[in-house]
Amino acid sequence: MDPVGRAELALTLVGVDPDKPSPARIYDFWLGGSQNFEADRAAGRRAAAAMPTLTAAIRANRAFLGRVVRHLVADRGITQFLDLGSGVPTVGNVHEVAKEANPDVRVVYVDIDPVAVAHARHLLAGVKGVEAVLADLRKPRTVLTHPLVPETLDLDQPIALLFNAVLHFINDDEDPARILRSYIDAAAPGSYVSLSHAAPDLTHRGEQESMLEDYRRSTDSPFVNREPEVVEGWLAGLEICPPGMVTVDEWMPDPVTPSEDILRTYGVLARIPEAPGQ
Length: 278
Description:
By secondary structure, the protein is an alpha/beta fold. The chain has helices at 3-10, 23-30, 38-50, 54-74, 94-101, 114-124, 140-144, 148-152, 176-186, 205-219, 228-233; strands at 80-84, 106-111, 130-134, 160-164, 192-198, 239-240, 246-247, 265-271. It has one domain: Rossmann fold (3-Layer(aba) Sandwich), CATH 3.40.50.150. The protein has 11 helices and 8 strands. Helix 2 packs across helix 3 (38-50).
């Protein structure tokens, strides 16, 4: 894309209200990032105080993402990633992890938060084969036809679709299963889907719901905990890769990483099978 086209795309970045917490910037705060405002930090501190196991779950989820990406590149030969709901770039970005294994990897980050996208575009200036798109993942056609997506990724070849800790921000009435399936249907056979999703806490349900009520109120964003069986059902017809749907700290864990008490967050990797005869 020429410089004029990139300048026009930059105009899609809307104004940001620093007094309104954002899920992407709260997540950045929990991970120790700097691309957040005081309102984000205040909301993040309240949530962490209400559920002390929360921040450990956030770190475990980020580590899960890194392990998935390394596995896909090094062991399964994937060289293209569409990271949906990518959030604010922070430690262990997908393109950094992937390019350690294969410098030719291409990545498109997609997020609805303008601060996340603006920071990503600044970070990615001059990085070959990596782009950031301001778009709503709930609109798959809009995402998949965004100029930077087909310019960067070849959707006729296998790709990895990443939904890391994002589908729990979609209410049931918006049909997250349908949204997910739209991306799966657009991906080539041999592609992969990785997702992680929050689940109800088994011992502190009241505290968790109180925390989420404050979170929903402050961000104006939904948050729906779902049991892993529900989420795995969205992947019907795909090949679930070992070790299956497990908590994120149990997915191909680093043997030297000590276990922590974390909020239940499940992760899974699945493969889109080839049609019979391929």
